[in-house]
């Protein structure tokens, strides 16, 4: 099996230069072309593979685009109701304290219907990892305004742009959970360039190492695009993300104990 070549491996001049991690299934990704979910999946599974913890890891995916993760992550996966992934992960980790447990959630899930579960899991310092994909919109259900939608940003439910006087300000969940004593590592990263991918992968590795050391909850936000929901090409959506999302959601470590 170690020498098996898959459709996702890369061969140049007869030499294997990239091999897909065994922690990803051979299913073809069903995300929209240009979406950051696929890259986030890959680096998350590469970390698990490189740490040698594939059989010891349990992932929890709730509702939204993140629910598709179980098709692509070749590990034990558990579904959760919308927003409830941190609660489910808490139960799994307490029953199996020696397992590595993570949630994989979108912004509509984590910062809207799942706000309470997120805040209280972070406040309790549950020894899990939360991976939070923030694309500022409800991607799967029709491009509606999410808690993270930017001021004046258009969506299917804010066709003239988000009016903060009527709809409130975007929620910066990462800054909020950084204030809670139960979090040990809180960071915001991206996956739109090779350098950003490397930084995100290092952050994910650190989060799982923290869990191994029983340090508490690690929270990783990945600011991504949703070119379908934003009604842009993948290239334009990445540029728009750099010019608009990053100033409001600046990248970098916020808390590192």
List keywords for this structure.
single chain, 257 residues, alpha/beta, Rossmann fold, 7-stranded mixed β-sheet, two-stranded antiparallel sheet, 10 helices, 37% helix
Summed up, what is this model?
The protein has 257 residues and is α/β, with parallel strands linked by helices. The chain contains 10 helices and 9 strands. It starts with 9 loop residues before the first strand and ends with a strand.
Description:
By secondary structure, the protein is α/β, with parallel strands linked by helices. The protein has a single domain (25-256), classed as 3-Layer(aba) Sandwich (Rossmann fold), CATH 3.40.50.970. Helix content is 37%, strand content 19%. It contains 10 helices and 9 strands. The strands form 2 sheets. Strands 4-3-5-6-8-7-9 form a 7-stranded mixed sheet, sandwiched between helices. Strand 3, helix 2 and strand 4 (76-79) form a beta-alpha-beta unit. The chain is globular, with a radius of gyration of 18 Å. 46% of the residues are buried. The mean pLDDT is 93.
Helix content: 25-40%
* Uncertain residue segments: none
- Mean residue pLDDT: 93
Total beta-strand segments: 9
Assembly form of the protein: single chain
């Amino acid at each position: 099996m170690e020498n098996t070549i898959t459709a996702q491996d890369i061969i140049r001049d007869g030499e294997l230069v990239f091999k897909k991690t065994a922690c990803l299934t051979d299913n073809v990704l069903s995300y929209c072309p240009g979406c950051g979910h696929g890259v986030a999946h890959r680096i998350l599974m590469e970390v698990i593979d490189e740490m040698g913890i594939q059989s010891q890891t349990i992932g929890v995916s709730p509702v939204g685009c993140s629910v598709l993760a179980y098709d692509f992550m070749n590990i034990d996966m558990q579904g959760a109701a919308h927003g409830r992934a941190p609660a489910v992960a808490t139960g799994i980790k307490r029953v199996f304290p020696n397992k590595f447990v993570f949630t994989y959630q979108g912004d509509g899930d984590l910062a809207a219907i799942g706000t309470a579960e997120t805040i209280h899991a972070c406040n309790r310092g549950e020894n899990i990892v939360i991976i939070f994909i923030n694309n500022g919109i409800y991607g799967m259900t029709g491009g509606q305004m999410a808690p993270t939608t930017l001021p004046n940003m258009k969506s299917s439910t804010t066709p003239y742009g988000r009016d903060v006087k009527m709809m409130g300000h975007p929620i910066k969940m990462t800054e909020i959970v950084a204030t809670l004593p139960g979090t040990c590592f809180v960071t915001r990263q991206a996956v739109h360039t090779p350098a950003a991918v490397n930084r995100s992968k290092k952050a994910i590795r650190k989060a799982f190492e923290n869990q191994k050391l029983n340090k508490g909850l690690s929270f990783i936000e990945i600011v991504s695009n949703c070119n379908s929901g934003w009604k842009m090409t993948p290239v334009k959506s990445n540029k728009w993300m750099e010019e608009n999302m990053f100033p409001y959601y600046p990248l970098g470590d916020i808390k590192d104990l």
